[in-house]
Design a protein that fits this description.
Radius of gyration: 16 Å
Number of domains: 1
Strand content: 15-25%
CATH class: Alpha Beta
Distance between the termini: 25 Å
Order of helices and strands: HEEHEEHEEEHEHEEH
Number of helices: 6
Shape: globular
CATH architecture: 3-Layer(aba) Sandwich
CATH topology: Uracil-DNA Glycosylase, subunit E
Structural class: alpha/beta
């Protein structure tokens, strides 16, 4: 199965990029990761979320769920094991998309600070497909700020904390929360083991 949105890829221009992936929304998902926007395709090693081989998101999940940070890593090919990632996320109930559906890159890099939002994602539409969702999770300031504005959350949560999302409940009547984690990018100045523990606490509370 492909997770590429080929229609969006075709209509992207030098100025505006439309989101190149379709939302990954397992029906059983309790956690929805929302980033800002994928990096440039030249940085991808898989056609999925967190595709940059030097981003540690899949190493963090490998360490948490399998006790091995390289569980999802194909070191020889310098890529992640996509089929295993998808099966894992479907089993655990972990969904992914981003807060922007279209952006402009103001510089030729993946930094959030140089992304201009052209179209925001309809977060309510995503949540309507996730009846058991308990938390939206962000790992960067731009994504967190975008969600707070879209969902009218009065105060941005600090890293490793969460806040309730006003007037937003799942089918079981539980109020959803916005949970902010440290970035899995190696540019974020926090040791890998400390990131693992932060993500582990979130998963233990929300899954």
């Amino acid at each position: 199965m492909t997770y590429l949105n080929t229609e969006n890829i075709a209509r992207s221009t030098d100025e505006v990029e439309y989101h190149p992936l379709i939302p990954f929304l397992p029906e059983n998902a309790k956690v929805l990761f929302l980033g800002s926007f994928p990096p440039q395709r030249k940085r991808w090693c898989i056609d999925f979320f967190y595709p940059n081989f030097i981003n540690d998101h899949w190493r963090i999940e490998g360490q948490i769920f399998f006790g091995d940070k390289n569980h999802f890593v194909d070191a020889e090919a310098k890529r992640f094991r996509l089929d295993e990632i998808v099966a894992h996320c479907q089993e655990k109930g972990i969904a992914f998309f981003d807060t922007s559906s279209a952006i402009r890159r103001l510089k030729d890099n993946a930094s959030d600070k140089f992304l201009e939002v052209v179209e925001q994602t309809d977060i309510h539409s995503l949540l309507s497909q996730l009846p058991h969702c308990q938390a939206i999770v962000t790992t960067g300031e731009k994504a967190t700020d975008t969600i707070c504005a879209f969902l009218q959350i009065p105060e941005m949560p600090k890293v490793n904390t969460f806040v309730p999302i006003p007037n937003t409940y799942n089918k079981d009547g539980k109020q959803l929360v916005l949970y902010r984690l440290p970035s899995s990018s190696r540019a974020y100045p926090l040791a890998f083991d400390k990131k693992v523990e932060a993500y582990r606490r979130m998963f233990e509370q929300m899954l």
